[in-house]
């Protein structure tokens, strides 16, 4: 009798475990490259993003989400490992976390070891050399754009002088292409302009169609799936099909000119000189060039938005809309001339803050919004909790599940972002009202009142009446830094 009861309990436990696995939600993680908050879901009205609006209407938008390092490699290493950069050890684009922290388990690897079918397409990890490969993925693909007309002209000229190109990986040809493509197009080095390619001929068009193919063909079979779709745009070069440029006439571009003397009271280490590569000078406005770059950047966003919408259509077509968690975000923000800066690698709001929308069927309420402070490092522990999988014990982020249940719930007290500047490391902390940063030492500090000075025009760190606030923020920075470094090996 005891044997029968024991066997029955064993069978019941096995059935419950099997049912639990079957009921685990799927995950679709969408990560853009260099996307700032110039999207309508973040309140940026000059640019409409109807695809993202669909997702926001069915999920929760986070208005105060921050990256941990505003450069592609360190940011991705951080949120894909659930570690702050100072613990991950990845503080530039050259390091590989597998060498720096052997044994550290990435997000897709955790899902694969927990019985999920995992697939990645596009730029998920920083590059193919940093991608963990089979240990993390059942399938992983990186596409290239089909040939651009600018390259075609250059190819013909090259072949007329050097003979036919037999191998696309020919080093001489690739070097010649890199050195001359932008000049041939009459562009400054980062490159911008419309292409004559169709959406599906661009790598991002291929990325989303590959995800749709996996879903249509049920590549995941009877397993729950974890799919990461890396969207390369709006990373430079700012190339997109012509029709998306047509959405953004140069005359309609809006921007806030940088105030005169913007850099008179800031640490010089806070400057990133990437603006030089874009053809600008510090504190010198170039209206025509700024409009051209912004038009191209916005065209890329419109292109991205149209592609992402196809992902949602595919989920619905395959009956997966109501059992799939969707997270949309970017690896970091991007300057488009604010403070005379272009690109990334700063601690300003434009660079550290990212768009984020999360939809969890049965948990998030339609069209909700949270202004709680959250971080990209929170994504990994959030998915671990929501999917009921075993995650690494070393995760440093905090699950967003309480916020997803209740948008009025309190989030983090502060967000922490760092970035290298030579051998120094700039560190910053943000609360609901204050942004405080130090560049190598407390003597090189910035303090901004984000409520009364949302554009961060006035660094008040040296003003006597803010001395106490500066002291408090300095203490908070030190405390947060210790926590961020706590898993360092």
Ordered list of secondary-structure elements with their pairings:
Layout: H1 2-22, E1 26-32, H2 50-57, E2 60-66, H3 72-81, H4 85-88, H5 97-100, H6 107-113, E3 117-122, E4 139-141, H7 149-162, H8 171-184, E5 192-195, H9 203-216, E6 225-231, E7 238-241, H10 242-246, H11 287-317, E8 324-330, E9 335-336, E10 342-343, H12 349-352, E11 353-359, E12 368-375, H13 379-387, H14 401-405, E13 415-421, E14 424-430, E15 434-439, E16 445-449, H15 467-484
Parallel strand pairs: 1-6, 1-8, 2-12, 3-4, 3-6, 5-7
Antiparallel strand pairs: 2-11, 8-11, 9-10, 13-14, 14-15, 15-16
Family: Belongs to the sulfatase family.
EC number: 3.1.6.6
Protein name: Choline-sulfatase
Q: Would you write up a description of this structure?
A:
Residues 197-207 have a biased composition (Basic and acidic residues). InterPro entries: Alkaline_phosphatase_core_sf, IDS, Sulfatase_CS, Sulfatase_N. It comes from Rubripirellula tenax. This protein is α/β, with parallel strands linked by helices and 489 residues long. The chain is built from 15 helices and 16 strands. It folds into two domains: 27-146 and 197-403, Alkaline Phosphatase, subunit A (3-Layer(aba) Sandwich), CATH 3.40.720; 150-193. Helix 7 (149-162) crosses helix 8 (171-184) and helix 9 (203-216) packs parallel to helix 11 (287-317). The longest helix has 31 residues, at 287-317. The protein has helices at residues 2-22, 50-57, 72-81, 85-88, 97-100, 107-113, 149-162, 171-184, 203-216, 242-246, 287-317, 349-352, 379-387, 401-405, 467-484, and strands spanning 26-32, 60-66, 117-122, 139-141, 192-195, 225-231, 238-241, 324-330, 335-336, 342-343, 353-359, 368-375, 415-421, 424-430, 434-439, 445-449. Strands 4-3-6-1-8-11-2-12 form an eight-stranded mixed beta sheet, with helices on both faces. It has a four-stranded antiparallel beta sheet with strand order 13-14-15-16, covered by helices on one side. The chain has a two-stranded parallel sheet with strand order 5-7.
């Amino acid at each position: 009798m005891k044997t029968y009861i024991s066997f029955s309990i064993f069978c019941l436990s096995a059935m419950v475990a099997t049912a639990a696995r079957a009921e685990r939600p799927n995950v679709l993680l969408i990560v853009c490259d260099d996307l700032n908050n110039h999207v309508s879901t973040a309140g940026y009205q000059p640019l409409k993003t109807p695809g993202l609006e669909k997702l926001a209407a069915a999920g929760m938008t986070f208005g105060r989400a921050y990256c941990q390092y505003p450069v592609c490699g360190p940011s991705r290493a951080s949120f894909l490992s659930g570690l702050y950069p100072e613990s991950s050890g990845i503080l530039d684009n050259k390091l590989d976390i597998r060498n720096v922290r052997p044994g550290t388990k990435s997000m897709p690897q955790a899902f694969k070891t927990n019985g999920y079918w995992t697939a990645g397409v596009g730029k998920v990890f920083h590059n193919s050399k940093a991608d963990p490969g089979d240990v993390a993925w059942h399938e992983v693909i990186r596409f290239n754009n089909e040939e651009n007309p600018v390259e075609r002209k250059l190819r013909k000229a090259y072949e007329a002088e050097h003979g036919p190109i037999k191998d696309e990986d020919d080093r001489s040809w690739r070097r010649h292409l890199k050195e001359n493509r932008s000049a041939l197009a009459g562009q400054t080095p980062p490159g911008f302009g419309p292409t004559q390619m169709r959406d599906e001929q661009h790598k991002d068009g291929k990325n989303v169609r590959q995800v749709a193919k996996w879903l249509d063909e049920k590549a995941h079979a009877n397993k729950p799936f974890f799919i990461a779709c890396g969207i390369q745009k709006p990373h430079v070069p700012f190339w997109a099909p012509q029709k998306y440029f047509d959405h953004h006439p140069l005359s309609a571009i809006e921007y806030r000119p940088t105030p005169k003397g913007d850099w008179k009271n800031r640490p010089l280490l806070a400057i990133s000189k990437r603006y030089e590569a874009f053809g600008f000078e510090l504190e010198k406005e170039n209206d025509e060039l700024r409009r051209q770059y912004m038009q191209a950047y916005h065209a890329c966003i419109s292109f991205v938005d149209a592609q992402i919408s196809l992902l949602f259509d595919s989920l619905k077509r395959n009956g997966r809309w109501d059992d799939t968690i969707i997270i949309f975000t970017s690896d970091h923000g991007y300057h488009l001339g604010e403070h005379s800066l272009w690109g990334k690698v700063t601690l300003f709001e434009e660079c550290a803050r990212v768009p984020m929308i999360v939809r969890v069927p049965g948990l998030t309420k339609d069209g909700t919004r949270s202004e709680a402070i959250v971080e990209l490092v929170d994504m990994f522990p959030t998915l671990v909790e929501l999917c009921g999988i075993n995650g690494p014990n070393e995760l440093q982020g905090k699950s967003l599940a309480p916020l997803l249940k209740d948008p009025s719930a309190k989030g983090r007290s502060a967000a922490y972002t760092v970035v290298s500047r030579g051998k120094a490391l700039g560190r910053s902390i943000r609360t609901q009202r204050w942004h405080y940063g130090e560049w190598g030492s407390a003597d090189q500090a910035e303090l901004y009142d984000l409520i009364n000075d949302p554009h961060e025009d006035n660094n008040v760190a040296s003003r006597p009446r803010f001395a106490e606030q500066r002291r408090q923020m300095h203490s908070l920075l030190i405390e947060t830094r210790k926590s961020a470094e706590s898993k360092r090996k």
